Amino acid sequence: MVRKKVVINNPLGIHARPAALVVQAASRFTADIFLSKGDIEQVNGKSIMSVMMLAAEQGAEVTVAAVGEDAEEAVQTVADLLQSNFEGKF
Fold first, then answer.
1. By the 8 A CB rule, do 79 and 39 touch?
2. pLDDT at residue 88 in the model
3. Domain 2-83 maps to which CATH number in 3.30.1340.10, 1.10.357.10, 3.30.160.100, 2.60.40.10?
4. Smallest Cα–Cα separation from 82: which of 35, 27, 38, 48?
5. Which three-class secondary structure state does DSSP give residue 51?
6. Is 5 a catalytic residue?
7. Distance CA 44, CA 66 (A)
8. Chain centroid offset of residue 69 CA
9. Where is 18: in which H helix or E strand?
10. Collapsing DSSP states into helix, strand and coil, what is residue 82?
11. How do the pLDDT tens digits run along the chain, 90 residues long?
């Protein structure tokens, strides 16, 4: 399993539109992708409801993890998106 911790920079956190972007990015990979924050462990990164359930606000630390043949690339892509502030992505 590949893991990476990131801090959410978006002032509004991960609301519906950023969650949709995360799911779109995660769905491009065959690896199983999971997100965790605090007591919420390993929600499905390919499910918009699961990603929104994190309720990740600005400054929250989120762990991105993946298992599968393209896990490293998947984790890096999702982590980069989460740290990007989602600027110009809507």
1. no
2. 55
3. 3.30.1340.10
4. 35
5. helix
6. no
7. 10
8. 18
9. helix 16-26
10. helix
11. 999 999 999 999 999 999 999 999 999 999 999 999 999 999 999 999 999 999 999 999 999 999 999 999 999 999 999 998 876 554
Which pLDDT belongs to residue 86? Answer: 77
One-letter amino acid at 19 equals A
CA 66 to chain centre: 11
Tell me the domain boundaries of the chain.
2-83
| Residue 45 CB burial class (10 angstroms; 0-12, 13-18, ≥19) | buried
pLDDT of 73: 98
Q: Which residues contact 88 (CB under 8 A, 6 or more apart)?
A: none
Tell me which of 2, 4, 13, 15 is the catalytic residue: 15
Copy the structure tokens of residue 90.
């809507």
φ, ψ at 51 (rounded to 5°): -65, -40
Partners of 35 in the β-ladder: 43, 64
